[in-house]
Design goal:
With about 325 residues, the protein is an alpha/beta fold. It has one domain: P-loop containing nucleotide triphosphate hydrolases (Rossmann fold), CATH 3.40.50. The protein contains 11 helices and 12 strands. It has helices spanning about 55-65, 90-95, 105, 115-125, 130-140, 150, 160-175, 190-205, 245-250, 255-260, 300-305, and strands spanning about 5-20, 30-40, 45-50, 70-75, 80, 95-100, 180-185, 210-215, 230-235, 235-240, 310-315, 320. The chain has an 8-stranded mixed beta sheet with strand order 6-7-8-3-9-10-12-11, with helices on both faces. A 4-stranded antiparallel beta sheet has the order 2-1-4-5, with helices on one face. Bound molecules: adenosine-5'-diphosphate, iron/sulfur cluster and magnesium ion (MG). Adenosine-5'-diphosphate (ADP) binds near residues 32, 52 and 55.
C-alpha cells in the first residue's frame, strides 16, 4: 500500500446509546456520534478536538469496533468492517490500538511490565517465547523505559504516571498497529511530563508511519499532531482542514469560539476569553433542530434553526458544516 492511499474511510457513522425506557414508552437514544464521514491516509496524523461530551471518545471507540456502530460504514484498506462479528475481528484488533486517558486504570496491577507487554503478543499468537521477549525489549527501548532490566520486572504501582503512560504506549505498539487512537493521552499526567509524552507519541507515529487519531479537548496540544484538525460538536464533525489554515482562518463559528477560548500566555491579554459564546453543549438525546450550534451561535440566520447544514467545501480540502459557507 502506498502512503497516499486511504487507510480508513468512515461514512455517515452513527453510534447511539439506548437509554433505559419505561415499559410502554418508546426508546430514547443519546446520539453520541451522529453522521460522521472522513478519510485517513496511511501514516497521517489528525487531531480530533471538541468540548467534553461532544462524542470524541465514542467516535474513537466505534472506529476501533470497541462499540457496535448504529449506522454508517467503516472501511479499513477498502474492507468493510462495520458489522464484523467478534471472532472475525481478531485481525482488526491486531492492526489497531487504543491509548486511553488513565494509565493507572488501563494496566493490570497484578502483572509485571514485561508480562503486560507480552500479553497482546500471546493473545495474537505472535512468535515463540524468544521472539516475544525480543519484541518486548524493542518497544521498551522505543518508549525509553531503560535500562530495560530495571523496568521489565517492575509492577505498575512502582512507576510514576508518566512512566505508566509509556508502558501503555508500548503495549499499544507491540503488535505494530497501522491505526492508533490516543484518547486524551496526557490529560491525567502532570504538566511537567505532558510535553515529553506528546513528543514521544509524535516521534513513534512518524517512525512507524502509523495513522493516528489524537483526541483532545485542549487545542493547544494539537500542534504535536499538526497536519489536520477535525473539530467535533454535538456528535458531528463540523470542520476539517489543515491545522494552520484552520487556526489562522476558522470557518465554523464553533471553531472560532474554541480558538478564542485559548488563554493568552500574556496575562494582559486575558480578557480575550470573554468572547466565548455563552451556553452549554446541547443535550444529545434531543439535539437542537437545524444546526446544532444555533443556540450558541452569534451569526445564526433564519435557515440555521430549520435546516441542518450539509458539508460545504469552500476551499480545496476544507470542509465545514455551516450555512455561512453555502454558495451564494
Ligand atoms: N456507554 C454509554 N452509554 C450512554 N451514554 C453514553 C455512553 N458513553 C458516552 N455516552 C454519552 O455520549 C455523549 C458523548 O460522550 P463521549 O463520547 O464520552 O464524549 P467526549 O469524549 O467528547 O467527552 C455524552 O452525552 C455521554 O454521556
Ligand atoms: S449554520 Fe448557522 S447557526 Fe450553525 S454555525 Fe453556521 S451560522 Fe451558526
Ligand atoms: Mg472523552
Amino acid at each position: 500500500m502506498s502512503e497516499d492511499e486511504e487507510l480508513l474511510e468512515v461514512e455517515n457513522l452513527r453510534k447511539w446509546f439506548e437509554l433505559r425506557k419505561g415499559l410502554f414508552s418508546s426508546p430514547l437514544y443519546v446520539k453520541a456520534v451522529d453522521g460522521v464521514s472522513f478519510k485517513l491516509k496511511k501514516g497521517e496524523a489528525i487531531s480530533l478536538v471538541g468540548e467534553s461530551g461532544s462524542g470524541k471518545t465514542t467516535l474513537g471507540k466505534t472506529i476501533l469496533r470497541l462499540y457496535e456502530p448504529t449506522g454508517g460504514t467503516i472501511k479499513i484498506k477498502g474492507r468493510d468492517i462495520t458489522h464484523l462479528k467478534s471472532n472475525e475481528l481478531m485481525w482488526y484488533r491486531r492492526e489497531t490500538a487504543l491509548i486511553e486517558q488513565d494509565p493507572y486504570g488501563a494496566l493490570p496491577s497484578f502483572f509485571s511490565i514485561h508480562r503486560i507487554l507480552e500479553e497482546p503478543l500471546i493473545i495474537h499468537k505472535f512468535g515463540n517465547a524468544e521472539e516475544r521477549r525480543k519484541r518486548v525489549r524493542e518497544v521498551l527501548e522505543e518508549v525509553r523505559l531503560t535500562p530495560i532490566e530495571d523496568f521489565a520486572p517492575k509492577y505498575p504501582h512502582m512507576l510514576s504516571g508518566g512512566q505508566l503512560q509509556r508502558v501503555a504506549i508500548a503495549r499499544a505498539l507491540t503488535l505494530r498497529p497501522e491505526l492508533v487512537v490516543a484518547d486524551e493521552p496526557v490529560s491525567m499526567l502532570d504538566a511537567s511530563v505532558r510535553i515529553e509524552i506528546l513528543n514521544l507519541l509524535r516521534e513513534l507515529q512518524e517512525k512507524r508511519k502509523i495513522s493516528f487519531i489524537y483526541i483532545t479537548h485542549d487545542l493547544t496540544t494539537t500542534k504535536y499532531f499538526s497536519e489536520k484538525l477535525f473539530i467535533m460538536y454535538a456528535g458531528k464533525i463540523v470542520e476539517i482542514g489543515d491545522m494552520l489554515k484552520v487556526v489562522h482562518n476558522p470557518l465554523h463559528p464553533y471553531t472560532e469560539a474554541l480558538l478564542k477560548a485559548i488563554p493568552d500566555p500574556d496575562p494582559r491579554n486575558r480578557e480575550i476569553l470573554r468572547d466565548v459564546p455563552p451556553g452549554e453543549p446541547p443535550n444529545l438525546v434531543n439535539p437542537p433542530s437545524g444546526c446544532r450550534f444555533h443556540p450558541r451561535c452569534p451569526y445564526k440566520m433564519d435557515i440555521c434553526q430549520k435546516e441542518e447544514p450539509p458539508v460545504f467545501e469552500p476551499e480545496n480540502g476544507r470542509f465545514v458544516l455551516c450555512w455561512l459557507h453555502a454558495k451564494k
